[in-house]
Specification:
This protein is mainly β. The protein has 2 helices and 27 strands. It has helices at 60-64, 242-247, and strands at residues 2-9, 15-22, 28-32, 38-44, 50-52, 73-74, 80-81, 85-88, 91-94, 103-104, 117-122, 126-135, 146-155, 159-168, 172-173, 177-178, 196-199, 203-205, 218-219, 231-232, 251-255, 264-270, 276-282, 286-290, 314-318, 333-334, 340-350. A hairpin with a 5-residue loop joins strand 1 and strand 2. The radius of gyration is 19 Å and the shape is globular. 47% of the residues are buried. Bound molecules: beta-D-glucopyranose (BGC). The site of beta-D-glucopyranose has 10 residues, from strand 24.
Length: 353
């Protein structure tokens, strides 16, 4: 089932709608046209009790204010571009520095702050909503009129599928992702340190003091970033490790192990008290595993509760950060006549203790 309601207005008076997607097992996803933000996601625990497992706010106001991209579609370029500039075909492009010297998550007004056009659908696969948005040539410093289409599909197999597509009329970098913060015990139910995480990644891209990849692809083996076997987030997060210290915890791009193209498992997360399991598969080469290190209790979230440090984690499927400045990384350049496509599948289930 899919339904649409009004959710308020932006500061300039643009109406924002909310779509509610429900599958045959009662899973429910609510997403708004502002930023394509997933404002709630209710999934059953091992006793069948539905609970909202994503961080955010009760009302539109919270999302219109300053916040770290809760639930949003990120574009044009997810994650950081070092020194907020890049060169493409011999031309240098300057972006707004909105994260120290870097450009982060699309700039001052990225795709997370756009009001998207939206159309709901029901088909054999499930129910969903298609969000579309065109970013004009030069917006946030990026070249080309870039049209993006992001489809959320909720299936009766308890999957939430994100399909991304984009075209451009000038060569331009693109790195679309989804920035939902999960707490599988339930939003507002403490920190995520007890969640057991498996990342299907033998390597990661180490960062410098500005959280920009150095260009190295480093093995995780023997480091606290080795999640090839399920490990609690909190087991090693405070270790005396250079990479953990630079990021204040986990905030790294992992290189997904894959055999060829297509969907590959990126991560599996299990929360022992609720039994909830989240599996993430993607066609993308990387996943940013971020443990909410910069959350600090200053924002008031759902139910009037402060959003505390490490009370949520993100698994942002993506191309590697700073790729426009790293020719050795897989290319993020989209050219006229090409269509960018990627897919990420979130699968929800439960596990007995
Ligand atoms: C980044 C973090 C950042 C967060 C919110 C994540 O994708 O990796 O460093 O703090 O987004 O902006």
């Amino acid at each position: 089932m899919v339904s649409k309601q009004a959710f308020g207005k932006t500061q300039d008076g643009t109406a924002v709608d909310i779509f509610t997607l429900t599958n045959s097992n009662g899973l429910e996803v609510r997403a708004i046209t502002y930023g394509g933000i997933i404002v709630s996601l209710r999934t059953p625990d091992r006793n069948g009790k539905l609970e909202d497992i994503v961080l955010g706010f009760d009302k539109l106001d919270g999302y219109l204010g300053k916040h770290p991209y809760f639930g949003a579609i990120i574009g044009r370029y997810g994650n950081r571009i070092g020194n907020a500039k890049f060169a493409l075909d011999g031309v240098e492009y300057k972006l707004a520095a909105n994260n120290g010297p870097n450009a982060l998550h699309g700039g001052l007004k990225g795709f997370d702050k756009a009001v998207w056009k939206a159309q709901s659908f029901e088909n054999d696969k499930g129910v969903g909503v298609v969000f579309t948005h065109t970013s004009p040539d030069g917006e946030e410093g990026y070249p080309g009129n870039l049209s993006a289409k992001v489809t959320y599909t909720l299936t009766n197999q308890n999957e939430l599928i994100f399909d991304y597509e984009a075209t451009t009329d000038k060569p331009s970098p693109i790195n679309l992702t989804q920035h939902t913060y999960f707490n599988l015990a339930g939003a507002g139910k403490g920190d995520v340190l007890g969640h057991e995480v498996m990342l299907n990644a033998d390597s990661f891209t180490p960062v410098d003091k500005n959280l920009i990849p150095t260009g190295e692809i480093r093995k995780v083996a023997g480091t606290p970033l080795d999640f090839t076997k399920p490990t609690a987030i909190g087991a090693r997060i405070n270790q005396d490790d250079e990479q953990l210290k630079l990021a204040g915890g986990y905030d790294h791009n992992f290189v997904i192990n894959r055999k060829g193209e297509g969907l590959a498992l990126a991560a599996r997360v299990y929360e022992p008290t609720s039994g909830r399991v989240l599996e993430v598969s993607t066609t993308q080469p990387g996943v940013q595993f971020y443990t909410g290190n910069f959350l600090d209790g200053t924002l008031t979230g759902k139910g009037g509760r402060a959003i505390q440090k490490r009370s949520g984690f993100c698994l942002e499927t993506q191309h590697f950060p700073d790729s426009p400045n790293k020719p050795e990384f897989p290319s993020t350049i989209l050219r006229p006549g090409e269509t960018f496509r990627s897919e990420t599948v979130l699968k929800f289930s439960v596990q007995e203790p």
